[in-house]
Structures are given as structure tokens and as C-alpha cells.
From TrEMBL:
Alphabetized SUPFAM superfamilies for the sequence: P-loop containing nucleoside triphosphate hydrolases
Protein's name according to its UniProt entry: Putative ABC transport system ATP-binding protein
Domain ABC transporter positions: 2-211
Annotated Pfam families: ABC_tran
Species this protein is from: Carboxydocella sporoproducens DSM 16521
Record lineage: Bacteria, Bacillati, Bacillota, Clostridia, Eubacteriales
SMART domains, sorted: AAA (SM00382)
Record bears the keyword Secreted: no
Amino acid sequence: MLSSKLEVKGLTIPPLFYNLSFQLNAGEWKLISGPSGTGKSTLLHYLINYWQPPAGTIWFNGRDITTIDPISLRHQMVLVPQRFFLFRGTVAENLQKPLLWRGKSFSWSTARDLLAELGLPEIAAEQRAELLSGGQQQRLALARALLLEPEVLLLDEPTSAQDEDNSLRVEKIIRRYCARGGACLWISHDPRQLERMGNVLHLKQGGVFHE
Ligand SMILES: Nc1ncnc2c1ncn2[C@@H]1O[C@H](COP(=O)(O)OP(=O)(O)OP(=O)(O)O)[C@@H](O)[C@H]1O
């Protein structure tokens, strides 16, 4: 039997989670919504073992994540945090560095196509990343994660700084990433986005409830 890509089994982290369980399969996305402070961002940090979960509570490809080398885990499961980090440097440098660290090659033409799909058709490789607008920087951070082609993408409010058109672009790209076998867990507060994307887990203190 194929195990799920990511599985949370009875995760208890007082006072945030009590016996929290859900799974995410390859080719699937799930959105997480819920009131501020219920632990949505914290949960994503447990999933990449930034915070260490109790043994046996978080599984990646059928392995307890506490038994996986954290760097290797974070190569396969990439988090774009709410307060993402861009290097001081050009757009191309920002996209290229994490690929090179993983021993992967960088193609500006692939990157440029992706950025165009994200509503940044005019962006130049040599443009300074810190001079882009907040919304443009957020899409650059997402493009950087997508170019890594991780097995699982963890997105913390990836469209919080986007207008409707660009939110739709992001949604389309995540649907395609999942259609190609990726798995995505995505925190969102946007009711229209939750409606459009579906597959919502509503997080309350003490558990996850399907809507
Ligand atoms: N490792 C941890 N263990 C237990 N509690 C934590 C841990 N890290 C953060 N917290 C607390 O958990 C609470 C939830 O924070 P978190 O940022 O995860 O909420 P959130 O649901 O993502 O909120 P928002 O929607 O406002 O982004 C905060 O009060 C934080 O201090």
C-alpha cells in the first residue's frame, strides 16, 4: 500500500494541538484556515522539523521525520514562511542560490517563464530584489520555492500581499504543481480563496475539522 506523502498522527503540542491528525497525498493540496494564533504557522514549522515534534507524530514518505536528516527533509519539503527572506542581490541571484546549494542547475529562461505566469513578465534577471514591491517580492519567493521542485510545498499565506488577479495566478500554478504530483499545504485567511480552492482544514485549538 502506498503511504501518504505527509501524515500527522496524533500530534500533541500543548496548548496548541491535542491529538491533531491529517494526511496529505501526492497530487493533493489542502488549505488550512482558522483564527489568528491557533498555531497554523507553528504547525508548518513542526512539519519541517524546525521545531522538533514528538517521535512518531509526523511522517514523510512513510518515515518518522525525527529520523530524517533535517537538511535532507527541507530539500524535499520547502516552506515559504509568512515573513520570507530575500537575499540582498538580484532577482536571478535570489532564484539561483538555493538551487546551487542543492546541486541543481539554474535556467533563467525557465525562471522567466514562471515569473511571467506569476504576473511578472517584465522582470529582469539583474533587477535588485529589494527594490521590488511587497507583492512582487512575495511572488518571487514563491517562484524560488517552485523552481526547487520540492515534493511538498508549505505556503504560509502566499497571497496575503496579492490582488485578486495575482492570487488567481498563484492558485493556477499551485493546481498545476499538484497535477504534476506535488503536494501542497497552504495557510489562507482569504474566504474567496478558500471557496475557490476547497479542501479546507479548519484549525481550532485542540483539533482539525473538515469544512
Ligand atoms: N514551538 C511552539 N510551541 C508552542 N507554542 C508556540 C510555539 N511556537 C509558537 N507558539 C505560540 O503559538 C501561538 C500561535 O502562533 P502562530 O503564528 O502559529 O499562529 P497562526 O495561527 O499562524 O496565527 P496567524 O493567523 O496570526 O498567522 C503563538 O502564541 C506562539 O507564541
